[in-house]
Amino acid sequence: GKTPNNELSDKIYIMSVVCKNNKKVTFRCTEKDLVGDVPEGRYGHSIDVVYSRGKSVGVLFGGRSYIPSAQRTTEKWNSVADCLPHVFLVDFEFGCSTSYILPELQDGLSFHVSIARNDTIYILGGHSLANNIRPANLYRIRVDLPLGSPAVDCTVMP
């Protein structure tokens, strides 16, 4: 998301419950640096947690970011573009991030809705700046977390 200086942060912020007593809940916000395929700072994205084979991982998709600094001009300094349609798996415990390219996801979508159920995420709606579309498809992204490398697949449901 955006920082107070109107920059975009590439940090992950983890909210957790510290204490719960007498109707009062206290939260802790922890900032986590990522390693590996670090997603660029963005907004209008989604991040969900999936569970597979007793493990969990965060799945980040979509959003918008500022155009690369080499392409910025004074008139278009704060211009935005769709993030690439990559799916990132994020291990919250170790801060490792891995990027996946799925051929079914052709456009970076912003402001979509997503929901996770067990090992699957469903993505609906959103908007693509690149071609000004709002796809009518439902995307089903399934994540398998075996002992070795994760497997990620996508099914498009018109």
Structure report:
The chain has 158 residues and is mostly beta strands. It has strands at 12-21, 24-32, 35-36, 46-52, 55-61, 64-66, 80-82, 86-91, 96-101, 113-117, 120-124, 138-144, 151-157. The protein has a 5-stranded mixed beta sheet with strand order 3-9-8-5-4, with no helix packed on it. Strands 10-11-12-13 form a 4-stranded antiparallel beta sheet, with no helix packed on it. A two-stranded antiparallel sheet has the order 1-2. The protein is globular and about 50 Å long. InterPro entries: Gal_Oxase/kelch_b-propeller, Kelch-typ_b-propeller, RAG2.
Task: Give the arrangement of secondary structure elements.
Elements: E1 12-21, E2 24-32, E3 35-36, E4 46-52, E5 55-61, E6 64-66, E7 80-82, E8 86-91, E9 96-101, E10 113-117, E11 120-124, E12 138-144, E13 151-157
GO biological process, one term: V(D)J recombination
GO cellular component, one term: DNA recombinase complex
GO molecular function, one term: sequence-specific DNA binding
